[in-house]
Amino acid sequence: MAESNSADLMDKIVSLCKRRGFIFQSSEIYGGINGFWDYGPLGVELRKNIRDCWWNDMVRRRDDVVGLESSIIMHPKVWEASGHVGGFTDPMVDCKVSKQRFRADQIFFSPVIVDGKTVGYVTVLESERIAEELLEKAEAFKRKKAIQGKLEPVQPKDFTEAKPEEIPQIPSPATGEPGSLTPPRAFNMMFETYVGALRDESAVAYLRPETAQGMFVDFKAILDTGRVKIPFGIAQVGKSFRNEITPRNFIFRSREFEQMEMEYFIADDDDWAKWHRYWIDWCREWLISVGISAELLSEYDHAKEKLAFYSKGTTDIMFKYPFGVQELWGIAARGDYDLTQHSKASGQPMEYFDDVKKKRFVPHVIEPAVGVDRILLAILCSAYVEDQAPDEKGKMETRTVLKLHPRIAPIKVAVFPLLKNKPELVKKAQEVRDLLRPYMTVFYDEASAIGRRYRRQDEVGTPFGVTIDFDTLGEKGPELADTVTLRERDTMKQERVKISDLLGILLPRVR
Ligand code: GAP
Description:
- The protein is α+β, with helices and mostly antiparallel strands.
- Helix content is 29%, strand content 29%.
- The protein has 13 helices and 26 strands.
- Strand 25 and strand 26 form a beta hairpin.
- Helix 2 packs across helix 10.
- It is globular.
- The two termini are 23 Å apart.
């Protein structure tokens, strides 16, 4: 990541994504729709590469994990049994004046205490500097009201902890004035729809808020196919939908997003902590294997007292995004809760028979769950670099480069004829493009000066560039005929290679 880990960096990444066709605001010509995003030509490739890498590593290259693609709309009883109808809520607060809506746990407040007496309240929205910002506001409040005395340290709390008598005194983050915030209310984040022609209660269904329930509901069906033996996992990639109160930070928290989840079923008496650790380490290594910098990753163990009653432990792999350290991948030990719930609600046993131990039991589960979009953003943040490179005249200039891992890069190689008005160069370059295209994504570019073409590819993370010049045509001697320059994005080093060797050199480096 570039040195400045700041809002400035985030703005640069958002702007690059739009400018170069990675990500656009959904329905932009109508003013956009909050929490929804479209992936353009390069974004689609990047996303697909992330998905494919995960699928290959998680499913195809393992003997103990199988795949599933369940439907997005499932029987509504699934979501009753899973607890989502009753409990998939966020605490919501309305500002009656501005009509803005906030998540209560993202509003932070403190009393302003001078000489032991509360003289007012200050509010900030969640950030990296909650305590500092509250203190700055408390000092400004005291100055503005000309209150004499000693200001005491701030006591940050989130709005879910506000006492009823405090609520009318806490300023709205929208207006800065107290008196307009409502008490927090539970808001269910599932999107509702109707199945069939009727629009009554009996037709209500939900867009899934997670892919995981598909794996639990189909557990028996997969077991009965006879291919799997405990311990084993069921993996799925697919869209999930959550009516987030405050979608934000670009694609980090969206209302429509894609998840990659795997439920790993283990014996009821197996060492769950060992498997939990195994999957935390696997996920971390996988993130590094797709080019995320290890220094930007950390782990956060959820406090035991804040876990759901059935959960044995949850650890999040955190990523240092420009807007703060945030959850990237959650690895939860969920006990036998989900299978037991579906067994009770459906009346179908969800048991596994161990024919060695001659024992029947409900398996326990370890669940690594991650969002494709969050990984994509972490990859972009990790890869974004500004360095210095010589321009056409040898003068140093700032170069923007996405140092994407070649496995993940949307375009693997760019092919350039040195000049577009020399038919022999163009013809040769097109031959090279056609040679490589069956094996990797190739971008052919003949527009503008060669330096500008390199820069354009650096900015979208293309790891290799191949230039066809007059040497290729044998104009400087037969020994150079049918050779090209192969340029490496990060070092900008160029080597001369034979066209016949190109595929053999590139393939192992991009796969
Ligand atoms: N089945 C468990 C589950 O869904 P979660 O922590 O709610 O757990 C798992 O979600 C992962 O999905 C998160 O770690 C995150 O990567 C991604 N995710 C969750 N909500 C998201 C949102 N609104 N936008 C983008 N990604 C999201």
